[in-house]
Amino acid sequence: MSYNQWSNGLISLEEAIQIALQEVPGRAVKAELESKNGLLIYEVDIVSDYGDYEVRVDASTGNVIRVEYD
């Protein structure tokens, strides 16, 4: 699957939210770009029928790095 990329090589916040929602269906309630261990990642908080999740998406590749149940 490919995603449109900004000229700076990062996927958009909206794309990161869609990627996260494919991983954990629900409602995105918060999303932000952060730097973790030298990587730019989007942290997307999702509320689903099964609980709250945080999905981390690599801002450069669009790959899901981590899914954490809160």
Secondary structure blueprint with pairings:
Blueprint lengths: L12 H11 L3 E10 L2 E10 L2 E8 L5 E6 L1
Antiparallel strand pairs: 1-2, 2-3, 3-4
Task: Give a structural overview.
With 70 residues, the protein is of the alpha+beta class. It has a single domain, classed as Nuclear Transport Factor 2, Chain: A (Roll). It is built from one helix and four strands. The chain has a four-stranded antiparallel β-sheet, with helices on one face. The radius of gyration is 11 Å and the shape is globular. The N terminus is likely disordered.
Keywords:
Nuclear Transport Factor 2, Chain: A, globular, single chain, alpha+beta, 70 residues, 4-stranded antiparallel beta sheet
The CA-CA distance between the termini, in Å, is 28 Å
| Number of distinct helices | 1
Number of domains: 1
Uncertain runs? 1-7
Radius of gyration: 11 Å
Total DSSP E strands: 4
Sum up the overall morphology in one term: globular
Assess the beta-strand content as a share of residues: over 45%
Helical amount: 10-25%
Series of H and E elements: HEEEE
Architecture per CATH nomenclature, i.e. the level-2 architecture: Roll
Structural class: alpha+beta
**How many strands, what sense, and barrel or not for the largest sheet?**
4 strands, antiparallel
Determine and state the CATH class. Alpha Beta
Numbering strands along the chain, what is their spatial order in the largest sheet? Answer: 1-2-3-4
Output the CATH topology. Nuclear Transport Factor 2, Chain: A
Q: What is the mean predicted local confidence, pLDDT?
A: 90
